[in-house]
Every structure is written in C-alpha cells, then in structure tokens.
Specification:
Blueprint lengths: L12 H8 L3 H9 L6 H13 L6 H8 L4 E6 L5 H15 L4 E6 L13 H4 L5 E5 L5 H10 L3 E4 L8 E3 L2 H14 L5 E6 L8 H16 L9 E3 L4 H12 L7 E4 L2 H13 L9 E6 L4 H4 L2 E5 L1 H18 L8 E3 L2 E4 L12
Parallel strand pairs: 1-2, 1-3, 3-4, 4-5, 5-11, 6-7, 6-8, 8-9, 9-10
Antiparallel strand pairs: 10-12
Length: about 350
C-alpha cells in the first residue's frame, strides 16, 4: 500500500452539498426528484453524488427535508379482516410513491377500551395520518393540529379531516331488505354492542338501520333476538347457538359483519338447523372467505377505501393539495346473493 494511501470513507449528504455548492436540503430535494430545484442544479448534484459514490440515507434525507416518507395508520385493532385488508391497500398505494406505513395498533385488554394516541407516537415519525374506523377524542384531534399532520379518516369521521367510507346505514338496509323481500318476518340480528366500545359508530349505525328497516316494513323488533357480540365469529357462534336452541327461533339472521355470519352458520350446523332451508343467514362485508362459505352478503370494497384515502393524503404530502374537511367520499356497496339465503319454510 502506498504511504499516502488513506482508508476510504463513505460520502455523506454534507459532502455532496459542499462539492455541489448547495445546501443539504437542496441535495435532498434534487435526489428525490422534488420541485423547487432548477434542472441545472439537479444535474450538478446528481453528477457530484455519482462522483462521490454517495448512497442516500433515508435518515439523512428525512432530517434534511423534514419529511420521513412514512404515514401513520391508526386502528383500534388490527386482528380483524377489515383492518388488515385496508392496511394492505394503503401500503400498496403509498409504496408506489416512495412512502410506507407505520402501524399504530391501539387495541387494549378490553374490547370496550383502547389506548390513547399521544405525541410520543407521532412526533417526527410520520408525515401524515390515516385513521381506521376510529372515533378520536378532542385531545387526539388537537394533537394532530399541533403537530401539523395532515390526516384522512376511513369509516368514522374525524373533525377537520376528509372522510372515505361506505354508507353503513344503506348497506344494512340492503341486507335486511333482502331477507324481507324473500318473505322472512321472524328476523334476528347479531352485532349489538355496548355503547362504550372503542369503535362505536359502525356497530350503532348498522344496528339502528336494521331496526328502522324492520319497523318500516311493519315488522316486530324482538329484543331477545338482538344479539350482543364482540364482532368475532366465536362470540357469534356462542350467542347464536343459544338462540337456535330456544323455544322460539327466527327464520333469518342478519349479521352486522361476515365474520359474525360465519359464527351463525357454524351454530346452525351444530344445532342441526339447515341453511337456507330452515334458516337464512346474511352478512355484510364480502370477507375473502364468504364465497367459499356460500354466504350471501353486502359487499364493501375495502381495498378501494384504503386506496382512496392514501391518494388523498399523498396529494397533500407530494403536491400540496388541500385536504377539505367537508369531503365525504362514499364508496358504493353491492348485494351479493349466494347459497345462504332463501324464502322461509312457510313460503315454500
């Protein structure tokens, strides 16, 4: 080795800035292809970076630009099909624009409670936030404003933020009207929850829509057939078995989600009740297993909701587009009839 040889040192973004005669922030913008950099400056920065064998560090780029390239996705829990599906769609859309997801799972020990979103979770870690069916407290909304984080809500609205959602009321009307149109008059419901649960709006909206639809058709709402459930298949199985083993049972069950409908189908099987000859079951979601189970359901396009929310947020982050707090983007739902519903026995 020659006497004047020195150990090689990895070039930094500061080295590139010094050689190109520009600021570190300008180097970051030029290498990321952002605007506010002239073509001549960008070309000079790229040449210097190539000459110095500079490899951009995500951390250095973040410090220079004030951006992390990360979007926080906040959910009351992530173990349910809806949440995992929508997160996957968000990640795919963000990835196409060089951004990624940081998940904040606020699930607590109890179904009725959740953890609180705080500054330590968000500060300097994310560029924006997408909430998933999460009613936020006044303090959490104030936190987003203080940190200057743009936000988009999926499902449950967040004050001051645009919303992407389905019409839960209309979807439940579709489901309930389907079994009524088949001739069912003795109809039970699975999906009632205590009013203190962590994500109250969707369960409440679907329950009230079921009630209103029955009443609009002159049908009785039997309180003993309004089954409480934590929105899992296991819980629905337990409660439905109790219902089907009682002296009086319905000819149709409307479940507020497909996962609860799966529990109802299993309960019918264990109780020897034939579906759909003796009992019709309909869900809401179009879970990826619903076609396998032959479940009639009302389909919501979960991936489309995630994609739409991610595009709205990217528009604000990359193009400076305003996020209108009054924007309410409603994704349509669709009745999908399969093998789990039929006219009641008395109707032939």
């Amino acid at each position: 080795m020659a006497d004047n040889a020195r150990p090689s040192r990895m070039s930094t973004i500061t080295d590139v800035a010094r050689e190109a005669g520009v600021s570190v922030a300008t180097v970051s913008r030029a290498l990321r292809g952002l605007d506010r950099v002239s073509p001549e400056t960008r070309e000079r920065v790229l040449k210097v970076a190539t000459d110095l064998d500079y490899v951009a560090s995500p951390t250095a780029t973040s410090l220079a630009s004030g951006r992390t390239g990360v979007v926080g996705v906040v959910a009351p829990f992530l173990t349910r099909w809806f949440f995992s599906t929508v997160v996957s769609a968000i990640e795919k859309t963000l990835r196409g624009q060089g951004h990624h997801v940081l998940l904040f799972d606020l699930e607590d020990e109890s179904y009725a409670t959740r953890l609180t979103l705080n500054q330590n979770l968000l500060w300097r870690r994310v560029d924006g936030v997408i909430t998933l069916n999460l009613p936020m407290t006044e303090g959490e909304v104030d936190l987003l404003e203080r940190l200057g984080l743009p936000a988009v809500a999926i499902g449950t609205p967040v004050p001051g933020c645009p919303t992407v959602r389905i019409d839960d009321t209309a979807a439940m009307v579709q489901a309930t009207s389907h079994v009524i149109d088949l001739g069912h008059r003795d109809i039970a419901y699975i999906g009632t929850v205590p009013e203190n649960v962590a994500h109250i709006q969707t369960p409440m909206a679907r329950r009230e829509a079921f009630r209103d639809t029955l009443l609009a058709h002159g049908l009785q709402v039997r309180e003993e057939w309004m089954l409480s459930c934590d929105w899992t298949a296991d819980s629905a199985l337990t409660h439905t078995m109790t219902l089907l083993q009682s002296a009086s049972r319905p000819t149709a069950i409307v479940a507020a989600s497909d996962e609860m409908a799966f529990g109802a189908l299993m309960a019918a099987s264990r109780c020897g009740v034939k579906v759909p000859e003796e009992l019709s079951v309909i869900g809401l979601d179009d879970h990826h297993l619903s076609s396998v189970m032959g479940l009639t359901t009302v389909r919501q396009d979960v991936a489309a909701q995630g994609d739409a929310a991610a595009k709205l947020l990217l528009g604000a982050l990359l193009e400076g587009l305003p996020l209108s707090p009054t924007l309410d983007q409603v994704i349509p739902t669709e009745l999908v009839v399969r093998a789990s519903t039929a006219p009641p026995p008395a109707a032939g």
